[in-house]
Recover the amino acids of this structure.
């Protein structure tokens, strides 16, 4: 079982069910009244029978739920089939989008709106958050209508997209955005014909490795960025990759570089590889996962709550001190009163004295009786 599957099990145990949103939440009701559910399953084998991906790949990427819908009438005004993959996280959804986009016929175009999508004549692929969508229409539809429909579907997704670390770290200069790809397993990366196959087993996907790739101008060379969870793991697999590279023959040469959590690979002549690899730098960043309230009212409220908390602690300590003083004073007062009372009534002292055994006097009396 991979660590991603373990993460799914733990999250399911703690949170009850994943994800918080389902495909039915997005497609039923007022959003798409004409959507009719045909298939809904969490079994990767059943999903593979009607979808694009193998069961092993869906296991690696951690499929939460697969559903297939039949759309008729408005707003598309043409019969269509929609497949929805609900994945564990954003990297998995982006990874499926990458693989599906490469299978489109011809040169898939990216639709011009703030939603990552690709389309050919009768197919639309898009993703957002942990959802990946594949729409197949019976007739070619204009892009504006597809755009409006996709925006309508994804408007109900609450989670914002969080891009994988290796994608974010791709150098921006001379980058061709439409060529960005992302992979989470050796099986997925094997679909990239430009990646050296002997290196697939040396990357460490079992250690949560991820691979982002993109082409760069002017030569169109493909840069591969392999991301690892820690710098120590990156160092370990960097040496393993280096040893593997010694056994691979490449005419232009394959050059590598490690920076922080990243290992970069580039197959190109040295004069082209060196300038691009020099731009690979791991930049760690910390971002708030929620929007902090900094209004005067909220700051005053937080300050009041903090003061209340410390006020409770201070009050508790004060009352504890007062209780101890009262108990000590009461004990001292009782002792003084008892002492004075015994002085005034000494007859009461005999009953209060300790019992003593006088053995000497007892022995004398016994001798007197014998004589």
């Amino acid at each position: 079982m991979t660590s991603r599957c373990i993460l799914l099990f733990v999250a399911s145990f703690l949170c009850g069910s994943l994800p918080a949103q389902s495909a039915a939440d997005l497609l039923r009701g007022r959003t798409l009244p004409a959507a009719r559910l045909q298939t809904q399953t969490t079994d990767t084998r059943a999903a593979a029978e009607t979808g694009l991906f193998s069961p092993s790949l869906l296991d690696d990427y951690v499929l939460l739920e697969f559903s297939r819908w039949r759309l008729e009438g408005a707003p598309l005004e043409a019969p269509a089939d929609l497949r929805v993959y609900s994945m564990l996280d954003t990297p998995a959804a982006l990874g499926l989008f990458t693989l599906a986009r490469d299978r489109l016929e011809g040169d898939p175009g990216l639709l011009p709106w703030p939603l990552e999508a690709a389309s050919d004549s009768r197919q639309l692929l898009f993703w957002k958050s942990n959802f990946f969508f594949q729409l197949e229409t019976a007739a070619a539809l204009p892009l504006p209508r597809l755009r409006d429909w996709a925006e309508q579907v994804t408007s109900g997704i609450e989670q914002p997209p969080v891009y994988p670390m290796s994608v974010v770290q791709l150098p921006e200069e001379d980058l061709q955005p439409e060529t960005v790809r992302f992979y989470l397993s050796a099986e997925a990366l094997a679909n990239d014909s430009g990646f050296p196959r002997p290196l697939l087993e040396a990357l460490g996907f079992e250690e949560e490795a991820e691979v982002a790739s993109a082409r760069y101008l002017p030569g169109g060379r493909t840069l591969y960025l392999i991301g690892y969870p820690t710098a120590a793991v990156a160092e370990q697999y960097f040496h393993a990759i280096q040893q593997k590279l010694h056994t691979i023959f490449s005419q232009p040469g394959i050059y590598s570089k490690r920076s922080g959590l990243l290992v970069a690979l580039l197959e190109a002549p040295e004069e082209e590889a060196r300038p691009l690899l020099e731009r690979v730098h791991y930049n760690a960043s910390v971002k708030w996962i929620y929007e902090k309230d900094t209004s005067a009212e909220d700051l005053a409220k937080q300050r009041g709550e903090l003061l209340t908390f410390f006020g409770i602690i201070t009050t508790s300590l004060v009352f504890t001190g007062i209780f101890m003083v009262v108990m000590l004073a009461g004990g001292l007062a009782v002792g003084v009163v008892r002492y004075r009372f015994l002085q005034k009534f000494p007859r009461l002292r005999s009953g209060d004295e300790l019992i003593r055994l006088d053995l000497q006097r007892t022995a004398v009396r016994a001798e007197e009786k014998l004589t």
About this structure: The longest strand covers residues 63-71.
